[in-house]
Design a protein that fits this description.
Layout: H1 2-8, E1 29-36, E2 40-50, E3 61-67, E4 81-89, E5 92-100, H2 124-129, E6 137-138, E7 146-151, E8 157-171, E9 174-189, E10 200-207, E11 211-219, E12 227-235, E13 256-263, E14 267-281, E15 284-293, E16 296-307, E17 310-322, H3 345-350, E18 366-369, H4 374-379, E19 381-395, E20 398-411, E21 419-426, E22 430-438, E23 443-448
Antiparallel strand pairs: 1-2, 1-12, 2-3, 3-4, 4-5, 5-6, 7-8, 8-9, 9-10, 10-11, 11-12, 13-14, 13-23, 14-15, 15-16, 16-17, 18-19, 19-20, 20-21, 21-22, 22-23
């Protein structure tokens, strides 16, 4: 039930621009050449352009059009014209529609019946979106990113995609190697007349500032199975340096850690607590907390999601028995029994306003907590967060080059809920240290110990 709720957060978290991996200025052009080792052995060139936006279309929507006409192809080459539509969402690049002429008769039939079959692999972009529509490309694209989705006219194609890192790639458009993000998808289509052509392993190389520059689809069927390859021949777009793929808050299933938390006034004996990432679905996850030692007996669950909006806390719930008494927290607008408490290190980390970290953080990024919305209703906190930069941090679990995020916050009428909090997030580990200098003069310190 909870995993379904997390998965439902896929497309809901608002719009964010995702055009770095597929820019689409009005004058953009690309030319691809593609072959199939069984069904299209002669290279076929396609020109791709940006179509005029439809009346009333949202600013985050765009459409690409392709054609093989006037591309100097031999008479034996497939004739193909079509469009593919995208929308930029906080989850990344989502394919919303496509349209084209029918695929060549010799190609496998990629539907359960011949009549009104809307599936095709007879173009470069059909190979890009096959089985991966929502999203076609997940963002933010960080180390460890993995997602599952479906595709096809009847959503009968399932896929699991993994970002496997960056590598230098050479294609005709860029004879000198360019840095590309490599995304590999395991695709399964069941029940089509053309099985297993609709299944297999597809790899797409994405260049920031350009789009996909190479596609290789190794179709299922064992030795001698068809292979489709598309390459970018030319473009008027220029490769750009991609944002960092460092993952400062990984949501990896079964990841574990243990923290020690003290407060100089109220909890001098450490509370030792452990967390486990217990459920994961497409960049969203549940993290559970249990107490190991110390004056707090606690259990808790937290939901997080990573999107282009940043790392956001979706929910949290805790139960605790405490041998220490800490000052109350607000907000005053909430009944006393509904107000927040600091029971776990993550309570200290999420307190205030979202996001915890921007999607692609760099030093100087800043954001503020306003006086409306869910966060203010829950916490009643105003303030400003800023990415300080990467610092070397030594904690019992080791020495990390961690991203420091500093938040200055005010919770009116509650000094313990006011002050300055600094969190250090290490790539591949998440929160490794937190220091909260409360407005009442006390200091809470959290350290990762293992």
């Amino acid at each position: 039930m909870l995993l379904a709720a997390l998965a439902a957060a896929l497309v809901g978290a608002g719009h964010a621009r995702a055009d770095g991996w597929l820019p689409h200025p009005a004058d953009a052009t690309w030319e691809y050449s593609w072959t199939d080792s069984a069904y299209n052995t002669t290279p076929t060139k396609e020109k791709v352009t940006v179509a005029a936006p439809a009346a009333g279309a949202p600013s985050t929507a765009f459409q690409l059009a392709w054609t093989t006409q006037n591309e100097g192809n031999p008479s034996s080459a497939p004739v193909s014209t079509g469009t593919v539509s995208f929308q930029e969402e906080s989850i990344g690049l989502v394919n919303t529609d496509w349209n084209s002429n029918a695929p060549p008769p010799a190609f496998p039939i990629l539907c359960a019946t011949l009549a009104q079959c809307g599936n095709s692999l007879a173009s470069t972009y059909y190979n890009v979106i096959w089985g991966t529509r929502a999203p076609t490309l997940f963002e933010p694209l960080l180390k460890g990113t993995s997602w599952t989705t479906t595709g096809g006219a009847q959503n009968d194609i399932a896929s699991t995609s993994d970002y496997v890192g960056t590598e230098q790639v050479t294609v005709p458009a860029f004879p000198q190697p360019v840095l590309a993000a490599k995304v590999q998808s395991q695709i399964t289509q069941a029940g089509a007349l053309g099985d297993p052509y609709g299944s297999g392993t597809r790899t797409v190389w994405w260049v920031y500032g350009v789009g996909p520059v190479k596609v290789e689809f190794d179709h299922a069927g064992g030795s001698g199975a068809p292979v489709t390859i598309a390459q970018l021949m030319s473009t008027n777009q220029t490769p750009q340096t991609p944002p960092s793929d460092a993952n400062y808050f990984p949501l990896t299933l079964n990841a574990k850690g243990t923290y020690s938390w003290t407060n100089t006034k109220y909890m001098k004996k450490p509370s030792v607590q452990s967390y486990t990432v217990s459920q994961v679905a497409n960049g969203s996850a549940q993290v559970t907390f249990t107490s190991d030692l110390g004056p707090l007996k606690v259990s808790g669950a937290y939901g997080f999601t990573t999107r282009l909006d940043g790392v956001t806390n979706l929910f949290h719930t805790t139960k605790a028995q405490s041998l220490v008494k800490m000052p109350p927290l607000g907000p005053r607008s909430a009944p006393a029994d509904k107000r927040r408490h600091f029971f776990t290190p993550f309570d200290l980390m999420i307190f205030g306003f979202n996001p915890l970290i921007p999607a692609y953080p760099v030093a100087g990024n800043s954001w503020t907590g306003g006086t409306n919305g869910r966060d203010f209703s829950d916490y009643g906190v105003t303030g400003t967060s800023v990415v300080v930069g990467v610092q070397t941090v030594k904690v019992p679990a080791g020495t990390f080059h961690a991203l420091a995020v500093r938040t200055v916050m005010k919770q009116v009428g509650f000094p313990f809920g006011s002050g300055t909090r600094t969190c250090w997030f290490a790539p591949g580990r998440g929160l490794v240290k937190l220091v909260f200098r409360h407005g009442d003069g006390s200091v809470s310190t959290v350290q990762l110990i293992r």
